[in-house]
Write a structure and sequence with these properties.
By secondary structure, the protein is an alpha+beta fold. It folds into 5 domains: 30 residues; 92 residues, conserved putative lor/sdh protein from methanococcus maripaludis s2 fold (Beta Barrel), CATH 2.40.420.20; 96 residues, Elongation Factor Tu (Ef-tu), domain 3 (Beta Barrel); 61 residues, OB fold (Dihydrolipoamide Acetyltransferase, E2P) (Beta Barrel), CATH 2.40.50.100; 76 residues. Helix content is 23%, strand content 30%. Helix 2 packs antiparallel against helix 3.
């Protein structure tokens, strides 16, 4: 058998393949270059645009508020804790067994002055009173006898015809003085026994309220034993710290006859509680606080538990916030805080040319919403820019935007004769 022979391509076919390869080598670079040109022109190279003619430049835009020179009354805000002005530990002056605890002597109960809160067993004290009365009677009888004897001795001396004055021994003066001393001692002993009997009834020293009772019925107590803690309810006090920078805005009372400063208190625990309590600063402490260097003012709240007024009660230990009206500031301007930039800088807009000028202000007073300044260069009617024009230099003209709604206006509140700034 003959072996199969391998077929070889013809010469014409080889020439055809070579031509295709050469064409491909020429076209492939062209395709790559065309693709790169397309990508560069459409994705990387900025699109060529015809230069447009320069138009009118855009002006910075801002809203403005019109400033007004007013009189302003600052409100100093501080806080404190309600405390009783007179709180004591009720004690017994005598020893004995408790037989009665009255309903007024319970935790939280009110009581009036001289109310009997606790009674001790009186038996021993009644016996002491009876014994003291007996001793007094005996001493009085001896004194009467000695007085009679002294008178009789003088009469006998006269009957004997002596002209000189009889001596003290003849008149029994020492015996008479001894009898008088025994009467005085017996009288004092009786008074002490009566006081002891009266002290079996432990009375309230003032109108107040019980914070805590410490004893129970049938308990035996000694002299000086603590019975409970009570406090007065006629008025309460609050210590209010006043910062050093705020003192110049207040006329705080230093002497007893200085006029008090009115204060409005609110509950610091419940912000939804709109109840307000009127108080008045009646004195200040004589020294600054060691740590904060604050001065503490003492505000007094009359009828803190509302027993007479019917107001909601304040509790001892309750934290409160306080607003104290300060001395009025005359001819000042309230600048909205949103219009103030760093370093207390503001932008003023000329009413006619709309050109801005920037300046720094020094606040006399500030709160969360406003800065209060006194600046002769800021007159009533001055326009204040409220936009953040940080990259706009002095002399730049701005476009003033109209107010679209009252809600867009800055919350400027000024004080005149009938106005206040919150």
């Amino acid at each position: 058998m003959s072996e199969p022979t391998e077929s070889k391509p013809s010469q014409s076919e080889g020439n055809h393949v070579g031509i295709i390869a050469r064409i491909f080598r020429v076209i492939l670079p062209v395709i790559v270059l065309a693709t790169g040109w397309f990508v560069f022109n459409h994705w990387i190279k900025p699109e060529a645009r015809e230069k447009q003619p320069m138009g009118i430049p855009q002006l910075p835009k801002t809203k403005v508020v019109e400033l007004t020179v007013v009189d302003f009354e600052p409100q100093i805000e501080t806080n404190g804790v309600v405390r009783s002005h007179n709180e004591i530990t009720l004690t017994s002056q005598v020893s004995g067994r408790i037989v009665t605890i009255h309903p007024q002597f319970e935790d939280g109960a009110y009581f009036e002055k001289d109310t009997v809160l606790v009674e001790l067993d009186k038996a021993d004290f009644k016996t002491a009173v009876a014994g003291a009365k007996s001793q007094l009677a005996q001493a009085q009888a001896v004194h009467a006898q000695e007085k009679t004897r002294s008178i009789q001795a003088r009469l006998d001396w006269i009957d004997l015809g002596y002209e000189e004055e009889p001596s003290d021994l003849v008149l029994r003066v020492p015996q008479l003085r001894e009898a008088e001393a025994r009467v005085e001692a017996a009288t004092a002993q009786l008074e002490q026994a009566i006081r002891g009997l009266d002290r079996c009834q432990i009375r309230a020293p003032f109108t107040g309220r019980v914070r805590r009772r410490m004893v129970g019925a049938s308990q035996t107590i000694g002299s000086g034993s603590a019975l409970g803690s009570i406090f007065a309810v006629d008025y309460a006090e609050v210590r209010l710290p006043i910062g050093a920078s705020q003192m110049r805005f207040l006329d705080l009372p230093e002497e007893a006859n200085d006029p008090p400063v009115e204060v409005v208190l609110r509950d610091a625990l419940d912000e939804s509680n709109k109840t307000e309590w009127n108080a008045r600063i009646v004195r200040t402490e004589g020294a600054l606080n060691d740590q904060s260097l604050d001065l503490f003012a003492i505000a007094r709240i009359d009828d803190p538990f509302g027993r007479k007024s019917g107001m909601a009660p304040l509790r001892i230990g309750q934290p409160v916030t306080a607003k104290i009206p300060g001395k009025p500031l005359q001819n000042v301007i309230a600048i909205p805080r949103e219009a103030v930039r760093q370093l207390s800088r503001i932008s003023v807009v000329d009413r006619d040319s709309h050109i801005i000028s920037k300046r720094s202000v020094t606040p006399l007073w500030e709160n969360d919403t406003h800065l209060i300044v006194k600046d002769e260069s800021l007159a009533s009617g001055t326009l204040l820019a409220t936009a953040f024009l940080v990259y706009t230099p002095d002399g730049t003209k701005v476009e003033i935007l109209p107010d679209s709604s009252p809600e867009d206006e800055p919350p400027v509140a000024s004080t005149g004769n009938d106005e206040t700034i919150d």
